[in-house]
Amino acid sequence: MADNEPTPAEEAAARARERAEQEALPYKWNQTIGDLDVSFTVPANYKGKDLSITLNKTSISAGVKGQTPIISGTLPHAIHVDDSTWTLTTAPGGNEKVVEIHLDKVNKMEWWPHVVTEAPKIDVTKIVPENSKLGDLDGETRGMVEKMMYDQKQKEAGLPTSDEQKKLDILKKFQEQHPEMDFSNAKIS
């Protein structure tokens, strides 16, 4: 283990602190590689006209009209405003309503550390995407995501990434074709 690697106890403490910070937020959020959803509750008698929700390419403000927004700030990355939406639905039990905001990421290849830059961050290197969601991606994007995930696992295990493995395979094949050459001091870069 490298010197700068956290111990399992430090890692667990960091995860617990991160979870506590996220649970303290006045909204809940989750994401896939391509989009992000934010939700919060309001009293059951509220209607859409009682809400104030503004989505811009790089900012968000959402809450009840005349009150401090529940979420407001600068997005860490751009969204497609025209493909981002919000809904107001009755929560199970009917005692309150849920405001759900769907943000469509411009860059479908990056995880967001937070919804707004003013909020506490999560460690995006610890995100494990649901495999079922990978099936939703188009072939080329899915291939890139799977390669990124594979390379991340290989790095964590101290093994060669797919690109490094390709170079090793080429060298091995070349060695087999040229047994007369000495590769004992060969360096791959």
From TrEMBL:
Spell out the CDD domains in the cross-references.
p23_NUDC_like (cd06467)
Q: Does the keyword Plastid apply?
A: no
Biased composition, Basic and acidic residues: where in the chain? 12-21
What is the superkingdom listed in this entry's lineage? Eukaryota
Entry GO CC: cytoplasm
Q: Which SUPFAM superfamilies match?
A: HSP20-like chaperones
Domain (CS) spans 22-116
Major location (coarse): cytoplasm
InterPro entries documented for this protein: CS_dom, HSP20-like_chaperone, NudC_fam
According to the UniProt record, where is the region Disordered? Answer: 1-21
Q: What is this protein called?
A: Nuclear movement protein nudC
Any one Pfam family here would be CS
Task: Give any GO molecular function from the UniProt entry.
Answer: unfolded protein binding
